[in-house]
Amino acid sequence: MKLGVDIYTLRSQGWNAFEYLDYAARLGLDTVHFSDLEPFERIDKGYLREVRTHAERLGLSLEAGMGSICPTSTTFRAEQGSAVEQVERMLQVAHELGSPVLRCFLGTNADRHTKQPLSEHILATVDTCRAVRGLAKDLGIKLAIENHAGDLQGRELKALIEEAGPDYVGACIDSGNPLWVAEDPLVTLEHLAPYVVTSHVRDTCVWPHPQGAAVQWVAMGDGNVGIEAWAERFQELCPESSFTLEIITGSPPRVLPYLHPDYWSAYPDTPAAEFARFERLVREGQPFLGAMMVAPAGDIPPEYQAALRVQQRLDFERSVAYCKETLGIGEKT
Q1: Considering the chain, what is the average pLDDT of its residues?
Q2: Which of 2, 24, 97, 263 could form a disulfide with 242 if both were Cys (CB 3.0 to 4.6 A apart)?
Q3: How many CA atoms lie within 13 A of 44 on its CB side?
Q4: 3-state class (DSSP) for residue 225
Q5: Would you tell me how many other CB atoms lie within 10 Å of the CB of residue 155?
């Protein structure tokens, strides 16, 4: 199975597209997932072909990505054009890069708390997908919708894909985001496995909190949610997908206050059996006790910024070693 990196893992490095590719090649990776266009100097065909040629020379495959395709989402960037215009533009970028997928998403957990119900956001996302079906099919590119930042649980994303049409819409499964919505990552995998076309993989710690549970992302092998079992099942169920690391360390724990009745207004349809599987992880878990620099979002001193850049590389490289040596993932030695 291909082992890859989502560039968000190394978001503070300030690298351009070619530098990301060179770094991935040095680590013996197989895939680079550009989940946004920030590392690209421009997106004309000539430049994109230069990036693709450089990747091919290094023996790397490429995957392309973008942000929200839901025009009603709190995260949608209307200044960049309509949802359909943005997806059509990015499908062309993906085509020039030789990417078989275009990762995208609905929004974030905030979209579960808007005046519009989540069902309307889902319908708006489906409408965007349907509007670009012809172009996606013509180019042979699948829209890979991620369970992103607490927007959708596994069964909700599965229903969205089936409503839009799995002939051109699939899933970018994220193993860390299920914890934001009180879901065992294995539950998410069980729902989405038939539709997975790519992935964002990272480990997580979860443990009891007076209000419910606390969740913190960690490097691969540092967590307590059974990432080895998840990876083994992923390889069985999704053998054609890449195992793409999106390691996010340095963030403080997130509290899920599910002991408060108000919490459940955003999750009214969560099956008790699925939540029980998450609760078991919580009860058996404990906080991460290893070394990690944690910094709040926003402006931080230059010294902290430098430390975070180093931490991103160290935690990612530890994660690559864990995947190769412990999980046996990766096509290169």
Answers
A1: 97
A2: 2
A3: 3
A4: coil
A5: 18
